[in-house]
């Protein structure tokens, strides 16, 4: 029998932004960024109230179609409980449709906040592996979701299950402490579905071999040899194909790399992220015409998703 949660439970969760692909690691490598969305939930007698402040306010649905709510409902089912009613308050800092994992953060946040609720009624919390699996089912690939769950850098992969479904998993990497992250975030938005449609169905053996070598090298560069980051972030499978749709991002990417800085599209773009051992980017880059349309600042590595119980819910 499904347990109904009591009225008056509260819980909150903080979940990080993420950058996926990192150049050659298409749909497999990810990195959490120190920019967080917060979800605060209260169980109430009936109904659903969704409040959003910050990014997406006035733009996202305030109904059961909201991704955070969908994540909550999926998490409740997985935990074997029901909520009589919910008040869901979202405080968003992660920009939407910029390639910074806002969708993955919403789903992971919804799933993880369930742990803060069920922990108060002695129900078993969802594990990190379960959070990755469930969130990746929404996304269709595990790179952003895994980074949001585990924090730091991750390698993720997908396996086919006997029932025809997909099993998603990930392993954390210990990011080298000398690496600094500089996201470049534009006001321009982009649809991942639209930019993914630009990619060919088939690639040559030459291009596949190139990216496999660079993705393998990138794991070494991220963990042990940051001096190899420039070569390790080369890509031929998706960034060149997306350049025509995001000319500003492509121009900034090329400028950074001409200055010897390992720069990549963040996910499908249009954000760009630079990975460097230098404490700051060159002034000639920051003052360039290419950088003018972007907000560029150093950002720490994101932490694993965390949840708390018994928090105050804003009115």
TrEMBL record:
Task: Report the EC number(s), separated by commas if there are several.
Answer: 2.7.1.39
Which GO biological process categories is it annotated with?
A: threonine biosynthetic process
| Entry GO terms, CC | cytoplasm
The gene for this chain is thrB
Q: Which InterPro entries match?
A: GHMP_kinase_C_dom, GHMP_kinase_C_sf, GHMP_kinase_N_dom, Homoserine_kinase, Ribosomal_Su5_D2-typ_SF, Ribsml_uS5_D2-typ_fold_subgr
- Gene Ontology molecular function: ATP binding; homoserine kinase activity
Cite the source lineage: Bacteria, Bacillati, Actinomycetota, Actinomycetes, Mycobacteriales
Q: Which residues form the GHMP kinase N-terminal domain?
A: 72-152
> Which reaction does this enzyme catalyse, per its entry?
L-homoserine + ATP = O-phospho-L-homoserine + ADP + H(+)
Q: Where in the cell is it found?
A: Cytoplasm
**Quick one: where is this thing mainly located?**
cytoplasm
Q: Which family does it belong to?
A: Belongs to the GHMP kinase family. Homoserine kinase subfamily.
Annotated positions binding ATP? 95-105
Q: Does the keyword Nucleotide-binding apply?
A: yes
What protein name applies here?
Answer: Homoserine kinase
KW Nucleotide-binding (keyword) present: yes
Gene3D superfamilies reported in the protein's UniProt record: 3.30.230.10, GHMP kinase, C-terminal domain
Task: Tell me the organism.
Answer: Mycolicibacter hiberniae
Q: Which NCBIfam families match?
A: thrB
